[in-house]
Amino acid sequence: MKGDIGVIGLAVMGQNLILNMNDRGFKVVAFNRTTSKVDDFLNGAAKGTNIIGAYSLQDLVDKLEKPRKIMMMVRAGSVVDEFIGQLVPLLDEGDIIIDGGNANYPDSTRRTKELAAQGIRFIGAGVSGGEEGARNGPSIMPGGDESAWPEIKPIFQAIAAKTPQGEPCCDWVGRDGAGHFVKMVHNGIEYGDMQLICEAYQFMKDGLGLSYDEMHRIFKEWNQTELDSYLIEITADILGYQDEGGEPLVEKILDTAGQKGTGKWTGINALDLGIPLTLISESVFARCVSAFKEQRVEAGKLFGKTITPVGGDKTEWVNALRQALLASKIISYAQGFMLIREASEVNDWALNYGNTALLWREGCIIRSAFLGNIRDAYAANPDLVFLGADPYFKGVLENCLPAWRKVVAKAIECGIAMPCMASAITFLDGYTTERLPANLLQAQRDYFGAHTYERTDKPRGEFFHTNWTGKGGDTASTTYDI
After folding, report:
1. pLDDT at position 482
2. Where does the 6-phosphogluconate dehydrogenase C-terminal domain start and stop, copy by copy (predicted)?
3. Burial of 424 (0-12, 13-18, 19+ CB in 10 A)
4. Which listed residue, of 211, 269, 284, 382, carries a Cα 20 to 30 Å from 450's Cα?
5. Does the annotation count 458 as an active-site position?
6. Is 192 annotated as a binding residue?
7. What sign results for the dihedral spanned by CA atoms 148, 154, 160, 163?
8. Cα separation of the two ends of the chain
9. CATH number at residue 151
10. Does one domain contain both 88 and 132?
11. How many domains does the chain have?
12. Residues 270 and 336 in one domain
């Protein structure tokens, strides 16, 4: 009997996805470029299962039912193209190649088109949930050649996480690179959520002087509120974890954060599409600042940096901080969905925004209770432009606003860096301001570059130029627009 699907790549994610598929009754053929890892897997974690080993790409192809379905769980970039180049001559028309790594979505768009021209169907599937999700049920975001979806749907939806209502956190996203675009935004939101939690942690630790036991208890309590989420849950666990000496382990971890690029890609795409993804961009820059450890130590000495303790009732501050975190988190998702909407319209993907929220409801790193509310918001109004305009989220933001302002103002006053919470409230203030000072900015642009401006007393789309000094010309700049 031949295999239902082949998987290339036996790192942690690949192995766990294979075991997950096996548990759901699918026959999987496993291959790794270093073939000794195939034997290690078959004699280790896969021992006693129905998993089949393959020792070359030809062997992999020969052991699969047609149309062949081959999923790559390898490092993004050139490695994916190398495997595709080696696989294509071995495949037949209609066979399917799936990239389950963190590819940059333009690569998935390119691969979909290039492979279609050769008769091969390509799927770019974002997979989220880490090691645990891959083993027990990840969130999966497939896009690419839609004709391949019915072939892989039974497998993907079987292995995916399920909502409490039993709905799989996997459905078709859209053509070309849509799946990997949505996964990229997911990762960007993940960056934002993590930084927001870190800002709350520093406010508690350095501002309020709370102990790790107190912070552990607070995050555990927060996880029973609207903040119920995977990242809040694991934060409570981390803050309560002690090393062999009985001291908080996290206190001994060097404060320099790594990154693999998906947050950066999200910010770059937001700039390209003109979407103010301020919170997520700040979370990427916060990691960049953290990397300057030695410089920060010297700068701290140079400026004599201290953090002023936050006075007042600590319980009240903790409650205010919870509201500030919740409101900021809403803005992060709102900006993320603004980016998804713009990309969908520009690329003609026709994405279902409520369905996207469902994909993230369980199984992934950003899974949280209020994703159900996001799905409801888009179900009630599929044309919703700004998530904060939905009655539920508008009510939460308005309710949290006084505490949010109080926390951000106090953090700035005390010297606690809060780039994401501050950028979130600044975005909301700008987005809800009917008249911004950009009229002056346009006048400046016209003054020095003859870039023209529109007028409030004239129809939109009609542009004017003023010779502000009497020394300039009357010719407007029409050669470029950034």
Report:
1. 47
2. 179-469
3. buried
4. 269
5. no
6. no
7. positive
8. 59
9. 3.40.50.720
10. yes
11. 3
12. yes
Do 249 and 393 share a structural domain? Answer: yes
Angle, CA of 444, 435 and 481, to the nearest 5°? 40
pTM of the model: 0.89
Based on the residue annotation, tell me whether 190 is a catalytic residue of this protein.
yes
User: Of these residues, 190, 199, 282, 362, which one is catalytic?
Assistant: 190
CB 79 within 8 Å of CB 134:
no
Among the options 63, 69, 183, 264, which is catalytic?
183
Q: Give tens-digit pLDDT for 223-254.
A: 999 999 999 999 999 999 999 999 999 999 99
Pairing of the two strands 121-128 and 139-144: antiparallel
Helix (H) or strand (E) holding 217: helix 212-222
33 carries a ligand binding annotation: yes
Give residue 58's pLDDT.
Answer: 97
Domain final residue, candidates 412, 431, 450: 431
Q: What is the pLDDT of residues 423-450, one digit of tens each?
A: 999 999 999 999 999 999 999 999 988 9
H or E stretch including 270?
A: helix 262-273
Do residue 198 and residue 272 come from a single domain?
yes
336 carries a ligand binding annotation: no
12 marked among binding-site residues: yes
